[in-house]
């Protein structure tokens, strides 16, 4: 399928401006939308490739630059986490909600996007943001890859979650121990939320990204297939 890509600028309610990478089918249609929420390394080639992959599946994909307040255009080095930390630490819950609302509004108003079929997916820092998105805007599904800090920091958002969620965790991930996986599951179960918890025993943090040393192809391929199936189910495509 032919894919069209472009960068757009969104003016946010807090007076800031945010760049968003958009990928969509080159065909005519009314497509479901999906927010692609970045790792700590920016809307780099990998995140852009994820957006393109979704566009090839018939989605309008939008990947916002979540560091737009501190480092517009930032693309980090996967081997230098210290360089990204100041930008990660500068993020706030209210700021992320503002960003998510702006991208959701853009997708909802796009004449080629079905406003009733919008989902989100995020990786690492973006996995946390995907969880936040489910509590912020009326999406139909949310996917979180190794979302650090959901437990214990954001468990109080569980009552506000308004979509089914799919969580992916790496069994070898030293950053997010199994106690956090269980804490997330317990919080959602207590609130009777619909979710799926998947742990790949042989995968480490960042296993989905083929630009990282921790890339684990079998887990990444299975996670992609599960993600597409989850979205198909909940967006009723």
How would you characterize the overall build of this protein?
The protein is an alpha/beta fold and 237 residues long. The protein has one domain: Rossmann fold (3-Layer(aba) Sandwich). 36% of the residues lie in helices and 24% in strands. The protein is built from 7 helices and 8 strands, in the order βββαβααβαβαβαβα. The chain has helices spanning 45-56, 81-90, 93-109, 125-134, 150-153, 178-190, 217-235, and strands spanning 3-11, 17-25, 31-37, 60-64, 113-123, 141-145, 165-170, 195-200. The protein has an 8-stranded mixed beta sheet with strand order 1-2-4-3-5-6-7-8, sandwiched between helices. It is globular and about 45 Å long.
In short:
By secondary structure, the chain is of the alpha/beta class.
Q: Which SSEs are present, and which pair or pack?
A:
Elements (H helix, E strand, L loop, with lengths): L2 E9 L5 E9 L5 E7 L7 H12 L3 E5 L16 H10 L2 H17 L3 E11 L1 H10 L6 E5 L4 H4 L11 E6 L7 H13 L4 E6 L16 H19 L2
Parallel strand pairs: 3-4, 3-5, 5-6, 6-7, 7-8
Antiparallel strand pairs: 1-2, 2-4
